[in-house]
Amino acid sequence: MHKGKAYLECLPREKTCKLWQDKLTAAGYFAKPPVEIVPVAQALGRVTAACTYAKQSVPHYNGSAMDGIAVRAQDTFGATETNPVQLTLLKNGQPFIAGGCYIVDTGDLLPTDTNAVIMIEDVHFAGNTAEIIAAATPWQHIRIIGEDIVANEMVLPEHHVITPADIAALLAAGLEHVAVIAKPKVTVIPTGTELVARAQDLKPGAILDVNSHMLCAAVATWGGEPIRHDIVPDNYELIKQAVERSLATSDMVITNAGTSAGTEDFTSRILAELGEVLAHGVAIKPGKPVILALCKGKPVIGLPGYPVSAMLTAELFVRDVLYQRQKLSIPEPEQVPAVLARQLYSHVGVEEFVRVSVGTIQGKTVAAPLSRGAGMISSLIKAQGMIAVGETSPGLPAGAPVQVRLFNRHQSDTLLAVGSHDLAIDVLGVFLKRQANKVLTAANVGSMGGIMAVRNNEAHIAGIHMLDDKSGQYNIPFVNKYLAQGTWQLVRLARREQGLMVLPGNPKHITGMPDLVREDITYVNRQRGSGTRMLLDYLLSKHGLACNAIAGYEKEVSTHMAVAATIVAGAADTGMGIRAAAKALDLEFIPVSHECYDIILNFPPDDEIAEIIITILQSPEFRQEVERLGGYDLAEAGKVLAVNNMQLGE
Amino acid sequence: MHKGKAYLECLPREKTCKLWQDKLTAAGYFAKPPVEIVPVAQALGRVTAACTYAKQSVPHYNGSAMDGIAVRAQDTFGATETNPVQLTLLKNGQPFIAGGCYIVDTGDLLPTDTNAVIMIEDVHFAGNTAEIIAAATPWQHIRIIGEDIVANEMVLPEHHVITPADIAALLAAGLEHVAVIAKPKVTVIPTGTELVARAQDLKPGAILDVNSHMLCAAVATWGGEPIRHDIVPDNYELIKQAVERSLATSDMVITNAGTSAGTEDFTSRILAELGEVLAHGVAIKPGKPVILALCKGKPVIGLPGYPVSAMLTAELFVRDVLYQRQKLSIPEPEQVPAVLARQLYSHVGVEEFVRVSVGTIQGKTVAAPLSRGAGMISSLIKAQGMIAVGETSPGLPAGAPVQVRLFNRHQSDTLLAVGSHDLAIDVLGVFLKRQANKVLTAANVGSMGGIMAVRNNEAHIAGIHMLDDKSGQYNIPFVNKYLAQGTWQLVRLARREQGLMVLPGNPKHITGMPDLVREDITYVNRQRGSGTRMLLDYLLSKHGLACNAIAGYEKEVSTHMAVAATIVAGAADTGMGIRAAAKALDLEFIPVSHECYDIILNFPPDDEIAEIIITILQSPEFRQEVERLGGYDLAEAGKVLAVNNMQLGE
C-alpha cells in the first residue's frame, strides 16, 4: 500500500550504473578531487594527487661503496703482483698529494681529488703506506651522486597508492610532505522512527540501527572517511535538514531508510527538492528501492533499510564511485565457476543477487545458496561469494553452472557442512579453524538433505541422525542405501538426548509425547527430512498419536535453536530438540529418547582433512567442549562406522 | 675488515626461517597473544580473540514481514473467492477477539493471539471489516524471533577478521564490545652515528634515516602498531638501553643498523647479552647481515642498513611472525611464470633475490631484472615482483624460465619501456596512467638495447635515437636491419637537441667538441650502444678527435640525468646529453647536434594501447608538457615512420 507507488520506472542495473556514472562524470565529480598535504611518513596507502619530483639526488654525494682506500686511479696504473705500487696514507682532511690515499668506510664521502676506491681486502698496509697489486679503474666502487634517484626526476607518478618503499623513496628524495587525494567524506544518515541506537533500548517493534555502522565500515574499507549521523526519525523537515547539513560538509551522503513505510518516500521527495533524482528503484533483488540523486554536485544515495539490501546497493552504487573519486582502479572481483547446489527460483524482470557458500568437494566447486531474506544478516556473514541470476531468468536448476564472485581469495579453505544441525558442528568448526585453518560453513537442511548433498558431492561433511525403525539401527542403513557410490566415511560424533523443550517452570505441565495432542498445547515442528522430524513421527506412531491432532505440526523451522527460540518467544508451547538447545536458551527439557548423531566425511581416500577431523573428534578437548553443552555422550566420538571407497563410475 | 668476521655460520634461508619459527613457537610467542576489548563499531579489520556468541536473538520479537493484516489463521480457514471471510478490524492495543484482525506494517510486532499475516494486496477493506478470499497458513509472512540469529548461537568464530557485515551481525546480536587480538607493538630503532632525521640536516657523508619510516609503514601494512624510536648513535650503552626499554613496551623490536661499520656488531653483542642470538648472517643477497634474536620471550631483529636489504629481510623474518602473532593466515603471494629478459649472474652459496619489472609482451610474460644494488631505493619502487635465484645456481641465462612472486595482482597493467632514456618517456607514462590506467616502467639500456628487447619481445616500447652515418638517416635503417620479424611500428616522438653540459658559468670555457681532448677537461660518457654514445663517436670522428685522448671516456653512466648529476657533483667537467637534462639540474648547455628520438611500439596489429599511445603523442597537452622541458620539437610527434607486420615464423 505504502511502498512501490512512488517508484519511478525501474531501470536494469547495468543501465542504472551507466546513468549514475555518466551523470557524476558530467557533473565533474571525478575530475578534480580535493587534495591535502600530508607528512610523507604518514602517507601509507594514500593516493598521490600529482606526479612527485625529487628535491635532491640519492645519493646526495659521491661516496665509497666499500670499506677500503680512496685513490686517484692514474696513480695505480701499472700495479701488478710482481710490480706493486705503494701509496702514502693521508689523514682525513689532509690535502691530496699525488700517490696518496685515504682510508674510507662504506658510505664515506669520497675525498677531494680521488676517483676510485680499492677494497680493503686488496690492500696490504705497512706503516704509513698502502701497497696494491692491481690498478684501479677510474670510478670503481664509488656510489656517484644521483646513481639511485636524480634531483628533479619523477619519483612517483600521479594517482599512485603509496607503499612503504615509496615512503622511503620520497623521504630520500628530500620530500617531507606529499600532496594526496583527500579521503572522500561520506556521511551516513540512519532514518526511521522505529530505529534505536543501542541494544539496551530495544523494545518489541523497535529496530536496532546496525546498518549505519556496517555502511560506515564499508565506506572505510573503500577508502572513504565515514561520518555517522545520529538517527533521524521519519520527519520530513528533520530528514531534509540532516541531508542539507551533511551535503555542506561531505563529498557524498548516504541515507539509510528504516524498514517501516514512509521514510523512503520522504527521502525521494527531499532529494528531488535538493537536486535531481536520477533513479528511484532499480530492477534488482534485494535492493530494489534504492534512490540515486545528485544534489549540489554531490552524489546522494538512499539505501534501502534491510541489511542485505543496504549492503548490496552500497556495493553496486557507492563503492565504485568512491574508488573513482580517489583515482583508484576498481578491483576486479575474482570469479570462479561452480555448480549450483540447489534449485534457485528467480523473478523474471529483476536481476537477483544471491549470496552463497563456496567449497570444492571431491574436485567439484559447489555454490550453495544461503537464506535469501533481505533481513538476514547471517547470510551476509556466512557468504563467501555471490551469484547473479539475470533479469530474464525464471531461475536455475540444481547443478546449473554459475559464476561466483568471490568476496576474498581463499575460498579453497572452506568446508561445507550440509545436513542436520547440531551445536557440536559449530564446535568442530572452531577446532578446524584452529588446527587446519579451514573455515566451516553450515547449511541446515536436515539429515536426508545432508545425505543427498554428499551423494551429489555438494558437502564435505553431513551430520545425520536417522533411525531405521525396522532394524532399530541409526544412520548406517541409510548411508548404505543412498550412498553406494563415492568415497566417504561415516563417523560417530555423539549419542545425544532428544526431548521436549518447554518454558521454565513447565507452565503447561507437559510430561511426554501424549501431551502433544492436548487442545491447549501448540507445537513447533522441524522440517521434513530432518532426523528430529523422523524421530517425532516414529514416536507418535509408537504412541498411537495422530499428527493432525497436534496444533502447530505444520509450523516448520529448520534448527534446534529455532525451535527453542520459538518457544521462548511464546509462539509455541513445546517442540522437540536436543538438550543443548534447551540449555542454551534456559528452557526446561523433558527427555524422550537417545539417538546417534554421526557425520559423513566426504573426502577422497587418505585426505588429510578427514584424518584431522577424526583426530579432533577423538581429542579430550573437543569432547569436553561438546559435553559441556549438555545432553551429549562423546565416548565413541571419532569411531569409524562405515567406509565406502567406490569411485563414481566404477 | 670490520664486517663479516662476527658472523655466525650463515644458514640457508629455509633453515633459518624454520629455526626462527620453531624457537618463537617454543617460547610461546604465538600461543596467547594479548587481547583487548574494543567497541564493535570500531572493530573493522580486527581479529576476534575468541568465539563470539549472540546476546540476543535477531529478530528479537515476532514481527510482520509484510504490510497487511495480522490474523489468527484458524479464523481464515475456508475462505475462497466465492465464499469470502469477513474479519473485524481491531485497533492497536485492543484485545484480540475471535474473527478479529489488526493492520500491521512491515516490522511491526505481531499482536498477541494472532499467528499469520495476510498481505495488504490480498485484503479488501470495507468500513470496519477486512474481507479475504484465501485462507492464511499459520505463521505465514511472520519473521519469527531468532529466524536470523538465535541468542547464544556463535556469531563469529575465533581468529576471524571482522568485516563490515560482521559489525552489523555483532551489533544486531546485542554485542557492543568485542574481544580482539591486540595489534603487536613493534618498535623500530634506527641506529648509526651517520644517520640524520631530516633532509635539511644532510651533509656529505651523512645518511638520511628513511628506513625506519619504511619499516614502520611495512609493520602497519602487516597489521602491527609501529613505534618509531629516535635515531640512536653507534654507542654500545645507548643502543643497549634503547633495546631494553623498547622490549619492555613492545611485542617485537627491530633495530636497523646504519651502513657504516660497527653498528651491526654492537647489536649482535647486545642481543646476546639480553637474550639468545639465533642467527647472525643468512645466506641470502641482499640482506646477509640480518640478526635474529629472542630476548625476554620476544623477537628482536637486527635488519641491515641498506634499504633493499632491510625491506627484504623484513619481508622474510618480520612479516610472517606478525601475521602469526595475530592469528592471521599468511597471504600466499601470487606467482607467475615468466622468461628472464637479461642474463643474471648469481653467487653460488647465497640465495639471491632480484626485483624485476614484469610485463606481457606479444603474449610472452617477461621479467626484467632491476638494478641490484642493496642501496637502490629506486629498485624497490619500480619493481612489480621478485625472483629468487637458488643457492646452488651460478646464475641464469637470458630467456630462462623463472617464477615471479608478484607484489600485487595487477601486473597485466604494466608496460615495459626498454631502450634509450628520454624524459619524454616519463611524461608518456603519466599520460598512459591517466588515460589507460597502465603503469609504464622504464629500463634504460640504450638504443641498441631497446632494439634487441623488441626483437626478443621483452619490451612494449623502445626509445631509440641512432644515426646511420652512411645515409644520414635516423633510426629507420636500424629497425629495418634488426627487426625484420615481428609486428611493430616506429613512431616519431621528437627532434631534440644534444649538447655538452657544463657547470653554470662554464668555468672551463668549453665551446665545442675539440675542447674534450684538452688535458684539463674530464668527461663523463654514456654506455656503449646508447644513441648518445654513437653520436659522440660520430662527432669525434668527424672532428678527427681520438677517443683515448679524452679523460673519462671510459667512465660510463646510463642516463642523461646521471651525466648531468655527475657534472653537478664535480666528478666530471662535461658530458653529452639532451638539453632537458641540463635544464633539470640547472647546468649550462652547449648545443652540438639535433637528432630524432623515436619510439618502437611493439604490439600486436590493431592493439588498442598502440593507438592510445599515438593519440597521446599527437595531443597538444602531451606536446606542450614535453616541449616545456626544453630542447624538444614535437611537431611530428605521433607520425608513423615504419610499420612491420611480419608474424614470427611467417
Task: Write a structural description.
Two copies of one chain form a homodimer. Chain A is an alpha/beta fold and 650 residues long. The first copy, chain A, has 17 helices and 38 strands. Among the domains of chain A are: 162 residues, MoaB/Mog-like domain (Molybdenum Cofactor Biosythetic Enzyme, Chain A, 3-Layer(aba) Sandwich); 59 residues, Molybdopterin biosynthesis moea protein, domain 2, CATH 3.90.105; 81 residues, Molybdopterin biosynthesis moeA protein, domain 3; 75 residues, Beta-clip, CATH 2.40.340.10. In chain A, strands 31, 32, 33, 34, 35, 36, 37 and 38 form an eight-stranded mixed sheet that branches. In chain A, β33, α13 and β34 form a beta-alpha-beta unit. The N terminus of chain A is likely disordered.
Which key features would you list for this structure?
alpha/beta, homodimer, Molybdopterin biosynthesis moea protein, domain 2, 650 residues, 25% helix, disordered N terminus, Molybdenum Cofactor Biosythetic Enzyme, Chain A, 6-stranded mixed sheet, Molybdopterin biosynthesis moeA protein, domain 3, 8-stranded mixed sheet
